[in-house]
Give the backbone structure.
Amino acid sequence: MYALQYPLVLPADYDMGIVRDRVARLGARLDDWDGLGVKAYLVRERGVHGSPVNEYAPFYLWNGPAGMNSFLWGGPFQGIVDDFGRPEVHQWTGLAYEEGAAGAAAAVTAVRDVRPVPEGVPLAGLMEEAVTATRRLAAASGAVLAAAAVDAWRWELVHFSLWDSGSPAATGDVYEVLHVSQPERDRLPRGRQW
């Protein structure tokens, strides 16, 4: 599993209706994309859920690099580049994935928690803690799914979860979910990924 996100921080006075309209028009384009486990179309609005910014930040869980690369180098990502400029694309290698206690529910909220991997700690133990935290998140009431991944270049760990209400049982940046494409969600490998 691979996780990917390209956060687009927008001006404070940006009309977020433009992003909402874009997702309403184009969101279904990835509903059958080969290799895509889940794409959550996410927004944060300044002042909502404590957000200091307006942001459009889709989050992806890929089953492998082929679908991800096809999207980035020969697919709809060019539309993002054309409309917003070329964003920094964050990529993480999967550590764990779990279906949530409310797995069949529609996702309303997402939480993304990105933290640095601390120096001087045994990496195996820290990664096992991430797997355990993913299981715990997925078991919480209202959890649709939970995942953990790591970027060994930036040495950062990300926990990502989708929730069926506006009151998630997770900490981190809280996003509103506008649409979820999940053509191969059932193929995402469960549990620990090594």
User: Anything to note?
Assistant: Residues 123-139 form the longest helix (17 residues). The helical segments are 17-26, 65-74, 77-84, 123-139.
